[in-house]
Amino acid sequence: MNFTLGPGRTIFEPMSTNTLRLGVNIDHVATIRNARGGQHPDPVRAAEIAAKAGADGITAHLREDRRHISDTDIDRLMDTLELPLNLEMAATEEMLEIALKHKPHACCLVPERREELTTEGGLDAAAQHNQLAPYVSELVDAKIRVSLFVNPDRVQLAVAKAMGAQVVELHTGSYCDALNDGDAEKAAGELARLQQAAREGHEMGLEMHAGHGITFDGVGAIAAIPELVELNIGHFLIGEAIFGGLDSTIRRMRSMMDQARASSKTAIA
Predict the structure, then answer these.
(1) Domain total for the chain?
(2) 129 is in an annotated binding site
(3) Residue 118 has what pLDDT?
(4) Active-site annotation holder among 88, 112, 169, 227
(5) What pLDDT, on a 0 to 100 scale, did the predictor assign at position 172?
(6) Catalytic: which of 61, 105, 171, 209?
(7) 193 assigned to a ligand binding site
(8) Is 56 annotated as a binding residue?
(9) Residue 235, marked binder
(10) Start-to-end C-alpha separation, the chain
(11) What CATH code is carried by the domain that includes residue 121?
């Protein structure tokens, strides 16, 4: 059961791992807009379409250099969005101030380097414990759900739990890259790592999410991992929308996720 407290403030009760949510990342709608300037395409409109197409939440990454999502986008999303907003952010004082001002449903702490094209790997929570822990604490105290974006590794999960994060999002990029490259052996190994990490994190009491690089080809195996309760997908959906429309692309991804989860439950039974 969910409780809606107003725009952008839906609160989820603890979930059964039989349910799989879809979070749609709208960053790259803003990337296209910013390539030319002006107001189009509008990422807030994309969020509204995603909601109607079956998304359970919206993700937006406000980067230090504002290369895609802007402060105004966050303002508008918080004012108009009916779905919960997951704000991806670096652990900086500027981003903490913005998060505490808006109080989105969730904040996902991610690594960030100005020269990177996209997020490259997960946080090293173990090495950065002293830097990250105060941010986790302040966000939790503000009643914002905190997620750490990490590689599928037991040490990273344990440190995230010790810091007080309620959620971990597993970086799926290595699996998706291997799959896209046709390296079946590596893909199988990376999938096994994701499966083990999801199981271990769930046993620690963490809510387990996953994301990065997920496509139609890779979503089935990831969605079938029973401990995962949310997948966050963005770049692929926005790219495919050029050819098939955003609504139909999200609906197809939602359907593939549901079919994979249903098939995995049947196989277990």
Answers:
(1) 1
(2) no
(3) 52
(4) 88
(5) 97
(6) 61
(7) no
(8) no
(9) yes
(10) 25
(11) 3.20.20.70
Cα–Cα distance for residue pair 102/79, rounded to 1 Å:
10
Helix intervals (H) in 103-183? 129-141, 154-163, 173-180
Q: Is 118 assigned to a binding site?
A: yes
Q: Which of these is catalytic: 105, 190, 212, 230?
A: 212
- What are the distances in angstroms from CA 11 to CA 141, 144, 152, 196? 16, 10, 27, 28
* 79 found inside a domain: no
Choose among 255, 263, 261, 185: nearest CA to 222: 261
Q: How confident is the model at residue 235 (pLDDT cuts 50, 70, 90)?
A: very high
Q: What is the DSSP string of 163-209?
A: HT-SEEEEE-HHHHHHHHTT-HHHHHHHHHHHHHHHHHHHHTT-EEE
**Nearest to residue 113, comparing CAs of 99, 100, 102, 123?**
123
In a domain, residue 142? The reply is yes
pLDDT digits (tens, 9 = 90+) for 150-171: 999 999 999 999 999 999 999 9
Question: Is 112 one of the annotated active-site residues of the chain?
Answer: no
88 is catalytic: yes
In a domain, 116, yes or no: yes
61 catalytic? Reply is yes
Determine contact, residues 206/198, Cβ cutoff 8 Å.
no
Torsion of CA 40, 64, 104, 176, to 10 degrees: 80
